[in-house]
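User: I would dearly like some help making sense of a protein record. I have put the entry right below:
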Amino acid sequence: MIKLRLLVLTLLSVSFAGLFSAQVIAANTFDHSQWDALLKQHVLPLNGGQASQVDYQGFADDKAQLDRYLADLSQVTPPEFDDWPKDEQLAFLINAYNAWTVDLILTQWPDLDSIKDLGSFFSSPWSKSFIPLLGETRSLDDIEHTLIRGSDRYQDPRIHFAVNCASIGCPALRNEAYTGKHLDTQLDEQTRLFLQDRSRNRIDNGKLALSSIFKWYREDFEKGWKGYSSLEQFLIDHAADLSLNPEEIQKLKDKDMTIRFLDYDWELNKTS
């Protein structure tokens, strides 16, 4: 009988320990499944994921589910957020940016042709403070430029291929949620897909024509991430994605390659 009691106590101890561990793991992650389901249903990948179109009417029809997800994001406190691993934090912020961008479009859908239609002469749509997140009312600019780019925690230029500004010129809105567990793989894939899109990045008459993203955020690619101190180093490492030949690679190494930046297409990335 004593041995049986000891066995039961041991099994209970192991069970409680396992339960506690699961709770700790759960406490250090965020469940993005609602957003993931919406993306899978309402985002159409094009050209193998190089671009995407968004069914904003579908999002409007499922607005209650989107609102629930946004409300869940808003419930996270700064101390809770700070306790998460960095990849969990960054995935959370990217998803928040993308979800609230969709929410912003829906405020005037279908009566707009561009996200810029939501701005005014005095302020851009990205500077509007309407997002209750991490204890403050924030703008999309706050999320991208303060919480993500302005923080010393991340310093990952690949975020520019993940945050989506609801425009054709933007990198594709991925049709799945970002997660801490898979973030590095997801960001790497988004980077490669964007660079492989010849409507945005290509050799044109011997010159390298790039998306304006590389003009606006060039400094982010030169801050030492993966040892890069120049945009050229980043591009050389992605020469295969850009379909560069040996001569073009050498020109980049010598910083003798002319780089020009393409006009950005701000038309709404809606389904046709």
